[in-house]
Give the backbone structure.
Amino acid sequence: MSRTANSIRNFTLGTIGYFLSYFVSFIARRYFVMYLSVEYLGLNGLFSNILSMLSLMELGIGAAICFSLYKPLAFQEIEQIQALMQFYKKAYTLIGLLVIGLGLSLLPFLSFFLGDVPDIPNIRLIYSLFVLNSGCSYFLSYKRTILVADQKKYIDTNYQYGFQIIRIIIQILILVVTRNYILYLVVMLFFTFVENVAIRNKINSLYPFLKDKHKKSLSSDESSQVKKNVIALTFHKIGSVIVNGTDNILMVKFVNLASAGIYANYFMIITALNSVVSIAFNSITASIGNLTVEKQGDASRPFFEQLNFITFWIYGFCSICLILLFNPFISLWLGNEFLFKFPIILAIVFNFYISGVLRSVRTFNASMGLFWYDRYKPLFEASINLIASIILAKHLGIIGVLLGTSISTLTTCTWFEPYILFKYGFESSASKYFLKYLKYTIINGSVGYISFIIIQAIQIKSPFFDFIVSMIACAIIPNILYILVYYRMHEFSYIRLLVQRIRAHIPRGKQ
């Protein structure tokens, strides 16, 4: 199956799975609060957060191994695949044991995390089940990485969401019939184990050589390279946590809790939109990795140019929709008291845009394994973000926090990440990229301004009607303007090529 077909399948099933997962989880949450007290919901969230912190011990091993698998998979180097997977198995077994050991060692300190201990029986047992569920997930799940690296993520998606739906249905029935939270968690642990066994068996049938007992070990150079990538990805994880996890804290500290609560509603929409776009990019990451090991260096650049153009179109379009629809939607959803003023909306969307348009660069950097070259960038980004946000928040309030994030992105990511890709990936100058960045951004700004003028002119001051009209207009007007601007430019051939590839891989019915 071609790279395009795999990417389309990964994206399609990933998107369906995401929305289906969101829907069934929403239903499950309704039954959870209906049959258990709100304290159980808080306990569920707290223990999940504790275990998510412990999961940072995974560092960047998964991404590093995934990158290392691209070349041997592309050239069917069986012994090398076996050696990498054996190394990965040992690493994940150790991580699973550490998660269980460290997790259980926190049992005597649960009261510190809980504050006022709620009136819930068997809290230690509940926490222990969470720990076991988290730790056990490492023992068999390591084999999923070969599916991702081999452009078959859709297989993992089928198993993941299939078992999740069944688990949630059974958990709902348990809540309705017994209202027993312990049994609810036992089902969760059981399905974690069964799902991992099932996907392991499926992977063993697809790659029977993984069951061979005699496997060579990684050479010292290969082990050093994997460890080097893990160290670099650790810096990235730390930086990401600081940059993405401090805005709300700073808003509470320097503005007020109410503003942070309002921002959470906007951020939730941004997160959902980013998640959908992420599925598309994650679906093609392995395809790019496979491409770059077959075509060295600059040979994969034409595909980057295509992806980069489409990225600017997608994030330009999404940004225009957010500017025009953010407040009308939230007004209908929650009420006018939960709205920000327009300058804050612009700051939120600006951060969304300048981070989003780097998706193509980041996808290629990850696929080419260029982790080491920008390992310190996240630390500089995080430091600038904290300093700028604190200083500006004291004088400008919530918009100061947002501008601090903008400054950190513009002074680090916007120029350094493309520089790394072109210098070490394509081995060429990044100057043409930056000229295109400026060109596409000017076009996006112009299309956004014209769309804003047109859509504002057709408003009749009826909140619901205006929202529906604006939503339809946002779907049509910016894209028509993009087509008019790009139609005679060579970039538009990328869109034609993409449409042709998608049409070629859509099954046709009988004539």
